[in-house]
Design a protein that fits this description.
This protein is mainly α. It has 2 domains: 98 residues, no CATH class; 67 residues. The chain is built from 6 helices and 4 strands; from the N terminus they run αββααββααα. The strands form 2 sheets. A two-stranded antiparallel ribbon has the order 1-2.
Length: 181
């Protein structure tokens, strides 16, 4: 799951929760938040319902929606005991309540803010690279179309268009350059 979502990949680390079946992988920003949210009640329920929960993902980074927080739960629809779906909903609502009431210490908050700043910079960099790649592809496509158009012209017009293009490229290269004497 960490590979699929950038927020998990960059902000979360793996944590071990006492008495929780090793079948589950717990990821979080800090041990403090994991211990608060995944308490004895949640641990017992997850162990009792093994195989029902595929994933539980809470984020306040607007990964899925533009809301200030998002809890995403994926359940195994082929679970052997369909009577556990209602208790599973109880666990989900309990976790949502725990997350809503979560208060970080000053130290944990400072670490989280520092990590999120680095995450935001990485996200902005990736978005800029993606945008630049799209612009580069559009420019290449425009040049291909222009080349095809020029090749469809009679030879003398082709030569004129090539000269225009070279002159335009030269002007572009010279733009911004100042000759010093």
């Amino acid at each position: 799951m960490a590979e699929k979502y950038l927020d998990i990949k960059k902000l979360a680390g793996k944590f071990r929760v006492n008495n929780l079946n090793e079948h589950y992988e717990i990821l979080g920003e800090s041990a403090e938040t994991v211990d608060t949210v995944i308490d004895n009640f949640v641990t017992k329920r997850l162990n009792d319902m093994q195989g029902l929960f595929v994933s539980i993902h809470y984020t306040d980074l607007k990964t899925f929606t533009n809301s200030s927080g998002h809890l995403r739960v994926v359940l195994n629809a082929n679970h052997k005991n369909p009577d556990q779906f209602l208790p599973a909903l109880e666990v989900v609502l309990y976790i949502a309540d725990k997350v809503a009431g979560l208060k970080l210490t000053a130290n944990a908050k400072a670490r989280a803010l520092k990590a999120r700043e680095a995450y935001n910079q990485l996200k902005e960099k990736e978005e800029l690279e993606k945008h630049n790649e799209e612009l580069r592809k559009k420019k290449e496509e425009k040049l291909r179309q222009e080349d095809a158009w020029i090749r469809s012209l009679p030879p003398e017009k082709q030569k004129r268009e090539e000269e225009k293009r070279k002159k335009k490229e030269l002007n572009k290269m010279m733009k911004g350059k100042v000759l010093k004497m």
